[in-house]
Design goal:
By secondary structure, this protein is mostly helical. It has one domain. It contains four helices and two strands. It has helices spanning about 5, 35-40, 50-65, 75-95; strands at about 30-35, 45-50. A two-stranded antiparallel ribbon has the order 1-2. Helix 2 crosses helix 4 (about 75-95) and helix 3 (about 50-65) runs antiparallel to helix 4 (about 75-95). The N and C termini lie far apart (about 45 Å). The relative contact order is 0.16.
Length: about 100
């Protein structure tokens, strides 16, 4: 049976201390492939974070998504989601430095 990483079309980075957090530069402890909107904003396939920045990003992103009106047309939602990603990324950086 193949592992999750073997099933992925792109090799996920190993979190062995050689990869670094997108926000603070500490060794990454978690990560995911960027979704379409995240990829457009961050310009990288994977989003790697340390434990501290992961928690901050989750907190800020939940708050930002809850502020986006669900009744908007999808194209407008995408634009607001992309802006939320930019804002959240900046908030995390501001919080850790």
């Amino acid at each position: 049976m193949r592992t999750y990483q073997e099933k992925m079309p792109v090799q996920f980075p190993k979190l062995d201390g050689t990869e670094h957090c997108y926000y603070c530069g500490e060794p990454a402890t978690s990560g995911h492939m960027n979704q379409r909107e995240q990829l457009r904003v961050r310009q990288q396939k994977f989003h790697l974070t340390c434990h501290r920045c992961f928690g901050l990003e989750n907190k800020f992103f939940k708050e930002a998504l809850n502020a986006i009106p669900r009744e908007l047309p999808p194209a407008e939602q995408v634009s607001l989601i992309e802006q939320a990603i930019r804002d959240v990324d900046q908030k995390v950086r501001d919080a850790v430095f």
